[in-house]
Amino acid sequence: MGYPRHLSVLPQIPGIYHCTSRCVRRAFLCGEDALTGRSFEHRRQWLEDRILALAQVFALAIHSYAVMSNHFHVIVATDPGVPWQWSDEEVARRWLALSMNTNGADSVLSTRIAQLAQDSKRLAVLRERLGSLSWFMRYLKEPIARRANKEDECKGHFWEGRFGTQTLLDDAAVLSSMVYVDLNPIRAGIALTPENSAHTSVCARSQVRTKENDDAPLQALASSIQSELSIVTTAQYLELVDWTARTLHTGTRGAGVGDAPTIIKRLGLRPRHWCLQVPATQSQYWRAIGHLESASRCPSPARRHMPVRNRYGATIATSYRYELNSHRLPRAIAFALNFSSKHAVHSLHRSIRRPILHAIPIRLLTLEAFRHDSNLNDE
User: Fold this and answer.
1) Pair (53, 72) in one structural domain
2) Terminal CA-CA length for the chain
3) Domain that holds residue 99
4) Same domain, 67 and 93
5) Rounded to two decimals, what is the model's pTM?
């Protein structure tokens, strides 16, 4: 069941999101066609360049990305309030960079900027769009689809649908999702080490790594807003990615557990919990990742529609309250299940709903975080 985007991505609230999108029918439209032997690998570079270019136009920051043969991931920090601080001319210039060929005469561009800057109603709409995650994804995907269809001399859908999002509620959720994204090529078996994973953010960070930025807070790869992860430095993040790759993927060169990076402990996690949380990012069912305390601080319109995985990744803690014919069940039913038992969660939902035939819609309550277990608990 789909949910309106505004329920998980609030229009005026800054946030960090893990976004994904697949090619239609999961075809390798950005890879090598096994049937014809034709390679479309160059389209991965199209996507990578487009992601970094749009970060200079929209009010957002790119923290991580991975462009694969049939899908891509991108972790984006947004701040919808920033475009309202830009001048009218700046808003007009950025929008025309998206919607107009700016390679022409400078006088033509200057005239268009001046005309647009005088239209206050239009500028208000453009400020909202330049701070919108949905408009960013639209301008990322649509030109790639048009360009690919033109190359293939065909028409029709290139992408499977719109895009999927997960809200990242705290530092542990952001870092685990970034590591998950950067390890996509290793998990797919097309790279042996993170630094050799083409078209990923970890590869880009490794190429521009210097002694000066090793000890600096981890910066966004491209940004139009102030966004950094002060909890970790560049060197610590690259060490974390390398250790996670060697721990989770035995085929990685130099595989072996070794000592866990200290950043894991600073996040309030144990190495075992970290190794559970990173693979748990792949679930498409959950729309938010983070500690339940972080979820409780979210604005209520998003929280009501936000099933949350806690920071240990392997634990799901959710509570539902049912109302039936003005009768309220005496207790909320709370449960904690291992993430690998997702089907058991659905089964539990069905078993609870079955005797309640005329229940008024469910409301999501926030409970305390549960440790890793699979027992059914009563709150």
Assistant:
1) yes
2) 28
3) 83-130
4) no
5) 0.78
